[in-house]
Design brief:
Layout: H1 2-25, E1 59-64, H2 70-88, E2 91-94, H3 100-108, E3 114-117, H4 122-129, E4 131-138, E5 146-153, E6 168-171, H5 177-191, E7 200-203, H6 207-215, E8 221-225, H7 226-234, E9 243-252, E10 256-260, H8 265-276, H9 284-288, E11 294-297, H10 300-303, H11 305-313
């Protein structure tokens, strides 16, 4: 009898798996992980159809992309997070993360609700963690973005890109657009220089490490987001006179801000309202991000098109493990 019951349970399990697979096959998702659906074709995960799967946390957890020491930004974001508390009626907690991987895993595991993911991490966050970006910082005239710059110390002897041959170029992390993917693709396509073949590589972990590494002659050169470098120079963390730029890219979208896909829709709307109603005048955000004046509505499908093309050129796939 026990054997019959066991067989029946196994059969039921197999049937349930088959049913789940069939349902999954009927759900449009593009490049999204199998747990998500994209029925409206906007390339980001839809909110779950089952209300029971919506998340309505007592405390909203927020993190900012770890381009520099996270503790530097705790105070910068404090005023904004208090504004979010007023708009949502919930406590908001700043969550310092030390790496892109840690930030991605936090959202994927349900421990992170609202975040600013860096440019290169956005596609991975969208496809693997259910991130729904809806805004980024912009100037008053709605201009936005940053450039990737390849920098070197003024005494390095590197004056043009071809001088990188045989030298060491520091990247930040494999998920970074300006710190790895864009420079790798552009150096190969425009100058015929391939990493670990025509020049040596190193990974600093963060943009501020790369900038400081160049200024201190730890690296011959580095690929960085110039927005980070400019803020470091403005704060006098690094002496800009010691740095030379040998390459500057086209403008890329900057950090994308958004929420996890399964937030209760009413809460997600309040979070959006918090971003778009924030007063930048004399704010800590304005003091830190001097060129920015507002949060601009964006769509992942449109504004991250160039980044997805760079990923495609690099052979990047969004395999979620």
């Amino acid at each position: 009898m026990k054997k019959i019951i066991t067989k029946m349970l196994i059969l039921a399990g197999l049937l349930l798996m088959s049913f789940s697979a069939a349902v999954a096959e009927d759900c449009p998702r593009g490049q999204l992980d199998k747990q998500f659906c994209d029925r409206n074709g906007d390339m980001v995960a839809d909110a779950p159809a089952d209300r029971k799967e919506w998340v309505d946390p007592a405390v909203i957890v927020f993190s900012y992309t770890p381009v520099e020491d996270p503790e530097v930004y705790r105070g910068v974001w404090d005023d904004f997070l208090k504004h979010m508390e007023k708009v949502t009626g919930k406590k908001v907690q700043f969550f310092p993360v030390q790496s892109n991987a840690a930030q991605l895993e936090a959202m994927r595991s349900g421990r992170l609700h609202v975040a600013g993911f860096n440019t290169g991490s956005n596609p991975i966050a969208v496809n693997c963690a259910g991130f729904v970006p809806f805004t980024m910082m912009a100037a008053a005239d709605s201009s936005f973005g940053y450039e990737m710059e390849i920098i070197t110390h003024v005494d390095s002897g590197i004056k043009v890109v071809s001088d990188l041959k045989g030298r060491t170029l520091a990247f930040t992390s494999p998920t970074s657009n300006s710190g790895f993917k864009a420079p790798s693709a552009l150096l190969k396509s425009e100058f015929g220089l391939e990493a670990d073949k025509d020049f040596k590589t190193a990974f600093s972990g963060k943009h501020d490490n790369s900038v400081l590494g160049v200024a201190n002659k730890d690296y011959d050169a580095a690929a960085v987001a110039n927005s980070v470098m400019k803020r470091m120079i403005d704060r006098k963390v690094v002496d800009g006179s010691k740095i030379r730029t040998v390459y500057k890219s086209q403008t890329f979208p900057t950090t994308g801000y958004g929420h996890v896909y399964n937030l209760k829709p009413e809460l997600a709307e309040k979070i959006k309202k918090a971003f778009f109603s924030y007063n930048w005048t004399n704010s800590p955000l304005k003091a830190e991000f001097k060129a920015e004046d507002k949060f601009l509505p964006i769509s992942f499908k449109e504004h991250w098109d160039v980044i997805r093309k760079i990923d495609a050129a690099m052979g990047v796939t969004y395999d979620c493990k």
